[in-house]
Amino acid sequence: MSSRQPGDRPKREEGPPHHALPPPSLTVTMLASATASMLSRIPCHPLDTVKAKLQVGAQGGLRGVLRHTLRTEGLRGVLRHTLRTEGLRGLYRGFGAAFVGSGPAGCLYFTTYELAKKGLLSVGLVGQSPFLAHFGAGLLAELVSCALWVPIDVVKERMQVQSTLAAGKPSYAYTGDLHAAATILRTEGLRGLYRGYGATVLSFGPFSALYFVYYEQLKGLAEAFSASNDSSTSASTRRPPPELHSTNVLDMAKLRMQVERAGGERTFGYTNVFHGVARIVSDEGWRGIFRGAGARIAFQAPTTAIALAAFERLKVGYGRLAERVEAREVGTPDTPGYRVFFYNTEGKKISPWHDIALTEPGTRIEQGVLRYVVEIPKGTDQKMEIATDEPWNPIKQDTRKDGALRYLKHGPVLCNYGAFPQTWEDPSAEAHPQVNLAGDNDPIDVIEIGSRVAQRGEVVKVKVLGAFALVDEGELDWKVLAIDVNDPKAASLNDVSEVEKQMPGTLAAVQEWYRVYKVAEGKQKNSYAFDDKALDRHGHESWRKLFTARSSPKFAFDSTSGAQ
């Protein structure tokens, strides 16, 4: 339904510069990572406490039942002993520091990874190797985020093991997490809060790097074989990499260094992490280097899995909130000055053509669930369209050559009608080799066949079913057939071949309406390519290319490069 002359190049809105809304934004990433890290701590913290108790349990000062439990009974024995002697509260010592601190630390960790991954994938030889990019980004994320993780660990671990190490010693009599942090800072200085920084990087760096390598590979495989985008959950819950087991001795030496008070009685007396490893091997034998490894894996594997799965899902959820769009009417309908402008959640004006994402965060174009902007609601006859040549691309009523407002003389549209954002049919290029016609110089049109009457300016998520290749005044004008994902029939419709069974006569009526609607305006009938047939989304090679030819300048769903 283009009113411009063939070859007129649509202009990107002039006016003030604005920000597109790419999913996910940095703010969304930060919020999702902080929330996910905090949530993962709630169910898993008791296992972390058991691990800490096991790793300090070989020191010679312990006596009696506790020493026997720590040295012989392992995870379950320590869990039972702690519950019996300290109650559930004993398993959650240090939780406050871990829970509150996990927000900013997890935010820094995941955000650093996302930014580093994006940067490394765009750099030379590293960018050509996803393994190197993911490995490097994971290692860098750990290195940077340790600036927050290490002080959290020092406070948390001293609270977790003080009942094990204290034996009534005043030096370990912390009354709570805040008291522990304040006491360490007062008596040991900032250096006390950063004990074991290097050991932390050494023990967690390899795990972080290789975990993200495995995660990204498994996520890619899951996406390739899954129609949904729940791949993050399945990828994140795979077996953790073996580095958790092989670096256990480093983690143990790190923890023992962190729980000792500088200047106080030295329980272990390690001068650095390598000295600690040597002492562990010397004093406790080769079996000693794996003390608490089972508890470490039992804690780290679900914690990381929960955090990653929650992170991916929260990115989608927060992304949807961040991308909410409000349509505001300016002027009076059925007047030349009437416009519908669009605003984001910050109240800033945006373009419905350039700034609304075609897909929701976390979904892929190939899944066939896209967003479209409603221009003409079902049952109305005002010829409304996105004004591609005006600042901010508002929706306006089209005009005839004499300046009069344009109405659909053939009658109201049978279905909701609109356009896909961030798309453009190039009038300077052949739209399809079998048809030998150029595009119509507009965003790609959508015919939504659901039962609900949509609102003008509404952004609706639809399931793509197929398309008609309408030939309109010598231009190929794709009409994408879709249905609102919330329509009662949406679940049973996956392509155009099923529409006739569920909604008899709908395709024929729609096709005939667009064939003849210009006759009432004194123009010729339109025609259809491909022998008047609707192209099925799944069954026709030319239609599948509309989803996969992302870099094509002829017809690419996510390309507005020609419209800048």
How does this structure look, described?
The structure is a single chain. This protein has 564 residues and is of the alpha+beta class. It folds into two domains: 295 residues, Mitochondrial carrier domain (Mitochondrial carrier fold); 240 residues, Inorganic pyrophosphatase (Inorganic Pyrophosphatase, Alpha-Beta Complex), CATH 3.90.80.10. The chain is built from 16 helices and 14 strands. The strands form four sheets. A five-stranded mixed barrel has the order 4-7-10-12-11. A hairpin with a 4-residue loop joins strand 8 and strand 9. Helix 1 crosses helix 6 and helix 11 packs across helix 12. The relative contact order is 0.10.
Short description:
This protein is 46% helix and 12% strand.
The SSE string, one letter per element, is HHHHHHHHHHHHHEEEEEEEEEEEEHHEEH
Distance between the amino and carboxyl termini = 21 Å
The proportion of residues forming helix, as a percent range, comes to 40-55%
As for the number of domains, it is: 2
Shape: elongated
Q: Top keywords for this entry?
A:
564 residues; 3-stranded antiparallel sheet; disordered N terminus; Mitochondrial carrier fold; disordered C terminus; 16 helices; single chain; hydrolase; metal-binding; transport; Inorganic Pyrophosphatase; transmembrane; alpha+beta; 5-stranded mixed beta barrel
